Amino acid sequence: MQDRIVQEYFDKEAKRQNEGIELIASENYPSINVREAQASIFTAKYAEGYPGHRYYGGCENVDVIENLAIERAKKLFKAAYANVQPHSGSQANMAAYHALLKKGDKILSLVLNDGGHLTHGSPVSFSSHDYQFSFYPLDENGRLDLKVIKELLDKENPNLLLAGYSAYPFAIPFKELRAIVDEHNSHSDVHCYFMVDMAHIAGIVAAGLCENPVEYADIVTSTTHKTLRGPRGGLILSRDESLAKAINSSIFPYSQGGPLEHVIAAKAVCFGEDLAPEFKDYMAKVLENTKACNDELAKRGAIVSGTENHLFLLNVLASFNINGKEAQETLESIGITCNKNMIHGDTLKPAYTSGVRIGFAASTSRGCNKAQAVEIADIIFDVLSKNISLYEAKDKVASIVKTWHDVMSLQYPLVG
Length: 416
Ligand code: PLP
What we know:
The chain is an alpha/beta fold. It has helices at about 5-20, 30-40, 60-75, 90-100, 125-130, 145-155, 175-185, 200-205, 245-255, 260-275, 275-300, 315-320, 325-335, 360-365, 370-385, 390-400; strands at about 20, 50, 55, 80-85, 105-110, 130-135, 160-165, 195, 220-225, 235-240, 305, 310-315, 335, 340, 355-360. Helix 5 links the parallel strand 5 and strand 6 (about 130-135).
């Protein structure tokens, strides 16, 4: 890299990532192969349209690569249809809504402070401008309440029920939600679609370690950069091929122009890695580490959500009498990165919050094991309760990360 300023910050960022423990639940480390594809010459190519139907010449190579990404995505998730062009999870959601709904239609989604995403009806997102949202709350244990969802479906008569979240630590009962929607549709005049945004848990789905929403939802959206461990981007899947035309045209030309074929190449590599049997072992370790950290914090007396996936919520206000912002900053000062997060029934504003969200997808990619996940819980507990100095905590972090792989040299087994 001849641009010295840019190179300097590449190096600084690699050092920051290497020296820290990454516990942000939505992050992960893609392999060298994914990064190489993303940095490839495909970035130079315009390919508006879809394989075989492009608005530009010279698309013979991108067509093969995009078809490869599509076929691998369909195999990975047992889908009849895949669109690999969404630039992000947010754009996948925008296109999915547009494919199924008319402007002004009604969507029933999770209360945002309970773990929904901005595109699930936040006043500051396009979603609430284009559609009318109503919301279902979690129960007193922070779990989905199927009875309440059923009642709200009948009361609100929405055109779409949305499941899949940013900060929900438990398994989502997709099969039961499908049954509830079907039962509602059997006596409602308004047809309700069922959509799942599996951005966070897509890796767990791909590994076969939870129910596959593609079997039950009309449309499933995802990101490719979280638990899937691919490039930053989006994905749309369906079990219903008849939706292909509506979804395709909702991506291009409705909401996007030329696809990012270099990112699509990186998605193809990522899906190849996720199809390898070793990916299942990796994901099982993520779940094991997350649970080990959650359980150790609970054992020490902290208030945690519990977990059935790659993340959990730590109530720092109740546990240490500090807010999420303070906890995030203290942890960052010792080399542990996580994010402040609203928790169920939070009384503080989103800029402060009562909790932090903790996930193990990224650290497990670098080699974190169960004993280290327990050690990390102890460091978090001890530093937030001021049992140890920041200096001592920083030293403990350094001795863990020095046993892990370098973020720049990660390679994962690949099929295909
Ligand atoms: N959906 C969910 C559930 C998410 O958690 C996120 C991002 O965190 C998104 C969608 C949006 O993805 P992106 O940041 O790629 O737009």
